[in-house]
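== Sequence, structure tokens ==
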Amino acid sequence: MTNVKGLLVMDVDSTLVQEEVIDLLGEEAGVGEQVAAITERAMRGELDFKEALEERVATLKGLPESIFDKVFARIHFNKGAKELVDELHARGYKVGLVSGGFHETVDRLAEQIGIDYVKANHLEVMDGFLTGKTYGDIVTKDVKVEKLCQWAEENGLTLEQTIAMGDGANDLPMIHKAGIGIAFCAKPVVREEAPYQINEPDLYQVIDILDGLQ
């Protein structure tokens, strides 16, 4: 095994990509405003994430499975996404995604830019239609921390050698846990508490933070 130098773990919606995918799904279901309002409250830390997710997913019941292709076409990486992953790989880092979103879209995003690890939620589909439920573990703030620790351990890294980045309240525990914690175009509560901030949508600025610490 090659000697891994570090690990970046980041959120997906409004961090790796510009959109909140659950909101796009909500728009397709005709409940866009309702879903977006719940998302906003959850990201600010006003709602329990798990409950908020279940409430939003329930509104998607009856959507055809083909909705994932339709929504995927509307997702855009934030500036510098591929460049950041390539540069970190060149420096001997691994890159992981932890998402309160869904494997159905996150796996495809990860494949496009060469991500090493992915943990997201699964939407239940029966007979070609969404049931309005998830299955398996829900990716909560605690699961995000668990994955950061697990992937670091798998690569023989200390937490000091990790970077965690996100925009919402459920990213804060992993931001606090990592050696370098970054708020990315984040909600006020996250900006206040994170040791580092990137306040313009350019992911490559992670490299500026890294280089500034060396």
In short: The chain has a mean pLDDT of 95.
